[in-house]
Write a structure and sequence with these properties.
The chain is an alpha+beta fold. Helices cover 26% and strands 25% of the residues.
Length: 482
């Protein structure tokens, strides 16, 4: 929209609820990291905020030369923040490194990467995969500098990317400071001198910091503060539903969650409307699928996949051998919304004899303890969405992904997911995901709860912000008015 011309200079203070899980985009597992990663690491592909359709990034063009070969043409004149050139060889090295890191499942279908010329990168795929383009708009496309990754163990302490802002300093639990990179290839898009990401775990404290002027921008705020923030004339406040949804992760290798009857019973015992009322003050969308209504692959036949029915859920528990009850060890975070959510979940599942034992810890520790140490058989966390639904389905449900700690395969699902990315026709892809959803409804490998509105508030001097369907704010191109 038309408005005043962008003004250069100043420091934008952005609240984040947790430390980054890593400053290495290839190693960190948390979806909450992206806001801090985007300014440091340009991605090979960008996306339209409203539709998530792919747009040029570090790759100015791309094409499938055949169904299993993706060719990228790189922007010219791009350098990393240490001054070294970003060419096809550097991109190949970054992608090859990614295939050895925490999130390697994103590129599991990439059999090899070639750099036939300085500005051309070719990805060879094991099977047709239309989702790979937008996979390169996520962590996999955040190109890291080969010159800085020769010692991979220390890269997170000295990160170097090709984004508009370079690493300046980091104090865990306090602040990540980024400074404008003067050699950035797209100079006209960058206006701030600095971005400070300030860690404030409690959303109430973050709302207070906004109102007192201690910070300039925050998303992931509590809906309980929405009216107050909207009433403050010094702030712009909005609440947008994106791909971020709250869910219960199940470890399918641990009892009692190794039995699909128990998992279906849990889903039938959950009252999603009550959760939305109690956790999000009535602001939200019940989650039956891993994508929201606004996403092109949404399957309306999946609505109410597990009807709320306590008697039917009790029978399933009895059929599974748990007529006298069972136990879930559930880890979540200590913030007020999560505490309310855990309390409601515990109360709802008690009606079918499920004893939910809740433990709280900070988000990075909870992620590590659940997904890596497998110290709990369930977790009440969120899925933060991905640009393409293929990546979401793969990461949440495929056997060998980080988000499937028990490494349990769901019969028939791999074939259904492969069909969903074997074409770029969105109608055909949506039909394939509808078939995958039927398998998921029967297996119930998770308990989706609700899509929460991302309450975002920022000072009136902050200009240029647009929410995205992905739900992860990009703040690197904002600017400050007088």
């Amino acid at each position: 929209t038309a408005g005043p011309p962008a003004k250069d200079g100043g420091t934008l203070r952005v609240r984040v609820p947790a430390n980054p899980s890593s400053l290495d985009p290839q190693a960190g597992p948390s979806g909450g990291d992206h806001q801090m990663m985007y300014p440091m690491y340009d991605t090979l592909i960008n996306f339209d905020f409203a539709t998530l359709k792919p747009q040029p990034g570090l790759a100015k063009a791309w094409t499938f030369t055949d169904p299993t070969t993706l060719s990228l043409t790189l922007q010219s004149g791009v350098t990393f923040q240490d001054g070294t050139p970003l060419d096809a060889t550097a991109v190949k090295m970054s992608l090859d490194r990614y295939k050895t890191q925490t999130n390697k499942a994103d590129l599991a279908n990439v059999t090899s990467v070639d750099a036939p010329s300085a500005d051309t990168v070719v990805l060879h795929l094991g099977a047709p995969d239309s989702s790979i383009v937008l996979v390169l708009a996520d962590r996999a496309g955040m190109v890291v500098a080969p010159s800085a990754t020769t010692d991979s163990a220390n890269f997170a302490a000295h990160p170097v990317g090709a984004g508009p802002y370079k690493f300046a300093s980091y104090e865990a639990g306090n602040k990540l400071e980024l400074a404008r990179y003067d050699g950035y290839w797209n100079k006209s898009a960058v206006h701030l001198d600095k971005i400070d990401f300030v860690v404030i775990a409690d959303p109430k404290a973050a709302a207070n910091a906004l109102q007192s002027g201690q910070i300039d921008f925050s998303d992931n705020l509590d809906t309980a503060d929405l009216d107050t923030l909207k009433g403050n004339s010094k702030l712009h406040t909005q609440a947008d539903i994106g791909e971020w949804f709250n869910m219960i992760y199940f470890n399918l290798s641990q009892k009692p969650l190794d039995d699909p009857r128990v998992r279906v019973a849990i889903n039938m015992a959950l009252d999603r409307d009550e959760l939305i009322a109690g956790v999000a003050d009535g602001e939200g969308e019940p989650a039956w699928l891993p994508v929201p209504k606004a996403q092109w692959s949404y399957d309306p036949t999946g609505i109410n996949a597990w009807p709320h029915d306590i008697d039917a859920a009790k029978k399933l528990m009895a059929d599974a051998g748990y007529a006298t009850g069972a136990k879930m060890t559930l880890v979540t975070t200590p913030d007020a919304p999560s505490a309310r959510e855990a309390e409601i979940v515990k109360s709802q599942l008690a009606k079918i004899g499920m004893d939910v034992q809740v433990t709280t810890m900070d988000s990075n520790q909870a992620i590590s303890q659940y997904f890596e140490a497998q110290a709990f058989n369930s977790s009440l966390l969120a899925w933060s969405g991905r640009p393409d639904p293929g990546q979401t389905y793969l990461r949440l449900f495929a056997k060998d992904t980080y988000q499937n700690p028990g490494k349990v395969a769901i019969p028939g699902l791999d074939d259904a997911m492969a069909k969903a990315v074997a074409t770029d026709d969105l109608t055909q892809r949506a039909a394939a995901y509808a078939a995958a959803n039927k398998i998921l409804n029967a297996a119930a490998p998770y308990a989706p709860l609700f899509y929460r509105p991302d309450v975002t508030s920022y000072a009136t001097k902050v200009q240029g912000y647009s929410a995205s369907l992905l739900g992860k704010p990009k703040v690197e191109y904002l600017w400050l008015s007088d």
